[in-house]
Amino acid sequence: MIKGPLKQFPALLKSLTRKGDPDKSDLGLFFPNLSLSLSLSLSLSLSLAFSIEELKAMDKGKAVMGTGRRWAVEFSDQSTVPSSRDILDPPGFSRASQEQDDSANSRQKKDAEANWKLQKAWEVAQSPFKNLMMMGFMMWMAGNTVHLFSIGITFSALWQPISALQSVGKIFEPFKDNKVELLMPKLVFLALNLGGLALGVWKLNTLGLLPTHASDWVSSLPPPQEVEHSGGGFVFH
Amino acid sequence: MGIRVFLPLLLFLSSAIVSFSLYEDQAGITDWHQRYIGKVKHAVFHTQKTGRKRVIVSTEENVVASLDLRHGEIFWRHVLGTKDAIDGVGIALGKYVITLSSEGSTLRAWNLPDGQMVWETSLHTAKPSKSLLSVPINLKVDKDYPIIVFGGGYLHAVSAIDGEVLWEKDFTAEGFEVQRVLQPPGSSIISVLGFINLSEAVVYQIDSKSGEVVAQKSRVFPGGFSGEISSVSSDKVVVLDSTRSILVTIGFVDGDISFQKTPISDLVENSGKAEILSPLLSNMLAVKVNKRTIFVKVGGEGKLEVVDSLSDETAMSDSLPVADDQEAFASVHHEGSKIHLMVKLVNELDNVLLRETIQMDQQRGRVHKVFMNNYIRTDRSNGFRALIVMEDHSLLLLQQGAIVWSREEALASVTDVTTAELPVEKDGVSVAKVEHTLFEWLKGHVLKLKGSLLLASPEDVVAIQDLRVKSSGKNKLTRDHNGFRKLILALTRAGKLFALHTGDGRIVWSMLLNSHSKSQTCERPNGISLYQWQVPHHHAMDKNPSVLVVGRCESDSSAPGVLSFVDVYTGKEISSSDIGHSVVQVMPLPYTDSTEQRLHLIADTVGHVHLYPKTSEALSIFQREFQNVYWYTVEADEGIIRGHVMKSSCSGETADEYCFTTRELWTVVFPSESEKIISTLTRKSNEVVHTQAKVNTEDLLYKYVSRNLMFVATVSPKGAGEIGSVTPEESSLVVYLIDTITGRILHRLSHQGCQGPVHAVFSENWVVYHYFNLRAHKYEFTVVEIYDQSRAENKNVWKLILGKHNLTAPITSYSRPEVFTKSQSYFFAQSVKTIAVTSTAKGITSKHLLIGTIGDQILALDKRFVDPRRTLNPSQAEKEEGIIPLTDSLPIIPQSYVTHSHKVEGLRGIVTAPSKLESTTHVFAYGVDLFYTRLAPSKTYDSLTDDFSYALLLITIVALVAAIYITWVLSEKKELSEKWR
């Protein structure tokens, strides 16, 4: 059970790319649509950079933990797993009877834990709602003119749901249990985040940054070629 | 670590850019201004005070100037109006420069040292006639020194002191034309010699005090005179008779007129028509006959004898007294690439006082005029200097066998301008050569930083200014990344082509056009216009770019044309050809061949067009587009515009397969009793338009962008004269927009009570024009924008996203475009000489109108001020779009004069050319002066300004890198210690 730092690297990379790819594709939807001004792209890249920093910091923390530990001996009780038992039980010790004794107690315990997990999962699932309200308030404060503040808020409003949607699995991982039904909390979580995303897009549109107008599509069209050509004018004197 | 620092450094080195914006200390960094005077007509030397050696000149550009004889610099200069041609120059009282201009109707006195005007007198004139200025040297009347002026049928005596008219004599009734005013020394009676109808010689003896005619004698000469006259002494003149074969000596001794005829055939054998040359020599005259110049001495009894004969191409000066009743004159003639200057005594032509040989640039052509001046050397002998005017209008001072200075005065008469790229930078020439060393570079930037932090001492400020002027290698002869360094090619009236560098305005090369065929009829063609012939960019990169100069042998429109192809890099003529047909129009076509030579069509007077270059490839390209090439002519006098289409090859008439016949397709006839064409204009063919759409708050408009659109302005014939010469009811101005393919009038706009002259500018889908409103007594600007209604339904976003539209499909003028226009008018406080518009590489940058004002300055006016969507109270959305609230007049903001403190005297034209940087445009203005600057109409949004402190940035980066490194080390340490805990 020795975990070398090298072993974690591919996984780390994988997690990074896994995180990286969906946002790229999600943002990719927006890229052509935006009539990007310089400041816009700047703020976008800034927010991107920040979130990537965060991610890196998270992973670095893990990595440091991994690198700090050169070896480990696991003292955990493996007795529950019969297959891994290579030492015989001492005489007079009956494993089965002990398990039977504890079974009622542990089942009760497990039920309580599952309940607790479900409760927590629901709490997590509903947490974006608060966020949503705050975002709405911030957007209202920012107004409808394009400036640094409103653009920053709009892009954070877009970014938060996207990053949350990417990490749905991770967020609900602690509550993973055979007995806990996580589908509903997940769906609620997704719906709320999608709501947040929609709010961000709506804000983007009110700022006039979505190419929903015909002029956004023809402004880059050059004037048409002319078939005929004529020249002339006054006669040279 | 080193790499980390140098990488940004390298990045900023490569993006070092100069940009245009104008604070006081920025004047003269990107712009330059050159002062000229034009081709010299008269020169009067002034050497009375030995300390100030000056020459007063008047020129064909109506300039009177005082030049320094040592260096050729302009002491002072006055540019008179275009209609105020100078007829004569003289010096009165030793301190006033007297000029007579406007056909003898305006007499002015300028203070000799500083050029201030002392007085100005308008003289009566009745009819246009030859005018004459005579400043008698020692004629004194009651403490006054009269100047005798003849012009427009009147003889005036004007006081030199205050310009008051002393007396006036009306000769209009007799039709008397004064030829010479002679003043016998020591007498107050002046003799005025003239002709009546070139058949009767009349001499008036006039008392210079009162203007009374003391005596009058006249005598009819049976054959009549030719009008050319040479006065040889105080009582004798020599004229040519009307057949130009007899020299007549007119003597008027004792108030009696005597004729003495000498046939030229007596003087030289096989004489043809003779011509009296202008130099005034005492007791002698110079006659040009049989392509020779002969000197004829006039004896005491009017007897003529030939004393010398020179080659045809000799220029001579007037004679001028040297010591002891001796008179000398200078003559200059060519021999190969050298010129010989000789100063001879008039009485003894064998006695050559001075003989000098000077190497002369072949590109200056022949000597046209010589003005001689003498001075006393320290050893009491006579020294001579000569001011010579060359065929290319340049002015040179010769002294002691050398050219002391020269002035390229051809640049005062620029007729056509185009721009060209410089050669690409070769390997091995790097930016480092300009910046010397890294240390110096850093030092310069630290200085700039000090300047921006207000820490600089006065010496530092001077050093910063020097650095700025020298910076960025703006004078190098290679192409730069931003396209700021370019060549301005200017064709001048002298037939000389100049290439000027945009960095500092120096002449890179110059070339006098000459025909290679050396036929006698067409040795020096005069250039008409200039075209880009070959601009290699994609393929054929190894070729040098070249320009086409279209010239004509004579000024007559039916004279055969000459084409000259000039290499832009070297300034050498690649080839030149007499094309054997006349040139009335040149049309550059939008097609190029495989070597990037542009196809040109040249129309002649017969109605045929000729294709150039004459290659089979060009022919095949042209034949492919044969049906789509049209041409039109504007006959302003008849008020007709005609459109033509190519018909067939004219091989039936001539064997020339590059010649094509045309067929008239349409005509637009303006009624001659109510409309007269005064101005036509089309878009510049090389203008780039970025987009066809225009967003009008929520709505979308499609611009009608067509190259085949012509703006025509007509006025009622009564209103074609001066402003204010008609009442508002009599005059009206009508403007048209005409499609030049089909002749369809797309728009017509009438301005009642308005008058020309019309100055207009046409760009993209708009025309802005300037005219005079007689009712309001103000100048007005009107803008007309043309939009395409037939494309307006292309508004479905989904169709546009999926590309299901026909907006980029080629269009034809036969598809009957539905257009609508928007227009608006504004008052403008100034009269305008010319208007241009800025042009940029991609056409994205907003446009500025460049208005050449009556004060010879250039005013930049944002196009947003002439936007027909302006309203009195624009809505919030409109304000956001940059729409300015409507005002009745356009503002003149003093800071937006791009010429800042300079004046482009005699401004005639403004040319704009894009640089590679989208934000920036080159502006070149020409008149008597030249002015160049770079403009950024929307500020330099795509480059850092010159003031950008790289040093500050560098310091910040270094500090940040250091901080990162230190914190990294610290965090490592901390982490390590935490692990050991």
Can you characterise this structure?
- The complex is a heterodimer of chains A (237) and B (981).
- Chain A has seven helices and one strand.
- Chain A has 237 residues and is mainly alpha-helical.
- Chain A has two domains: 1-75, no CATH class; 107-208.
- The relative contact order of chain A is 0.10.
- Chain B has 981 residues and is mainly beta.
- Among the domains of chain B are: 39-220, Methylamine Dehydrogenase, Chain H (7 Propeller); 674-828, no CATH class; 949-981.
- Helices cover 10% and strands 44% of the residues of chain B.
- In chain B, the strands form 16 sheets. A six-stranded antiparallel beta sheet of chain B has the order 43-44-45-48-47-46, covered by helices on one side.
- In chain B, a hairpin with a 5-residue loop joins strand 41 and strand 42 (573-582).
- In chain B, helix 1 packs antiparallel against helix 9 (950-980) and helix 4 (438-452) crosses helix 5 (458-470).
- The radius of gyration of chain B is 34 Å and the shape is globular.
- In chain B, 40% of the residues are buried.
- Chains A and B meet through helix 7 and strand 1 of A and strand 43, strand 46 and helix 7 of B.
- Strand 1 of chain A pairs parallel with strand 46 (629-635) of chain B.
Outline of the structure:
Chain A: Pfam families: EMC4. Chain A: Belongs to the EMC4 family. The complex is a heterodimer of chains A (237) and B (981). Chain A is an all-alpha fold and 237 residues long.
CATH fold field value of the domain at 39-220 in chain B: Methylamine Dehydrogenase, Chain H
Strand order of the largest sheet of chain B: 43-44-45-48-47-46
Mean pLDDT of chain B: 84
Please indicate the percent range of residues of chain B in DSSP E strands (runs of 2 or more).
35-45%
Give the overall form of chain B: globular
Separation of termini of chain A?
99 Å
Largest sheet of chain A: none
What does the overall shape of chain A look like?
elongated
Order of helices and strands of chain A: HHHHHHHE
Query: Major beta sheet of chain B, specifics?
Result: 6 strands, antiparallel
In which range does the helix fraction of chain B lie?
Answer: 10-25%
CATH domain class name of the domain at 39-220 in chain B: Mainly Beta
Structural class of chain B: mainly beta
Residue windows where pLDDT falls under 50 for at least 5 positions of chain B:
1-21, 428-435
What is the domain total for the residues of chain A?
A: 2
Uncertain spans of chain A: 1-67
The count of DSSP E runs of length 2 or more, i.e. the number of strands of chain A, is: 1
Number of helical elements of chain A? 7
How many individual helices of chain B? Answer: 9
Radius of gyration of chain A: 29 Å
Name the CATH architecture of the domain at 39-220 in chain B.
7 Propeller
